[in-house]
Amino acid sequence: MEYIYRVYGWRLEGGIDMVAKTPYKEQAIATGRNLNPKEYMHFLIIEHDIKRDSDFPIMAENLYRNKEYRKDRKW
Questions:
Q1: Does 72 score more than 80 pLDDT?
Q2: 69 pLDDT exceeds 80?
Q3: 7 to each of 13, 32, 66, 75, how far by Cα in Å?
Q4: Alpha carbon distance 26, 17 (integer Å)
Q5: What does the alpha-carbon distance between residue 18 and residue 28 come to, in Å, rounded to a whole number?
Q6: Which residues are CB-contacts of 12 (< 8 A; sequence separation ≥ 6)?
Q7: What's the pLDDT tens digit per position in 45-66?
Q8: How far is the C-alpha of 75 from the C-alpha of 72, rounded, in Å?
Q9: How far is CA 43 from CA 27, 52, 55, 61, in A?
Q10: N or C: which end of the chain has fewer CB within 10 A?
């Protein structure tokens, strides 16, 4: 196990959460894509190399699939 994958989600209201931490890349991608789009806007996956102690962003996606979710936001 050389890498750890961290999934961060940007909330519609309230900031950023670290949603999951896993040693499996596929599981991290599935976790990010399955976040509730009514609670989160985007997700970001960071790959952490344990041997080199370095981080590298590997994936970022927007979770909005419909404009209806923006109606609930309080600006």
A1: no
A2: no
A3: 18, 6, 22, 26
A4: 20
A5: 12
A6: 38, 39, 40, 41, 69, 72, 73
A7: 999 999 999 999 999 998 875 5
A8: 10
A9: 14, 24, 16, 6
A10: C
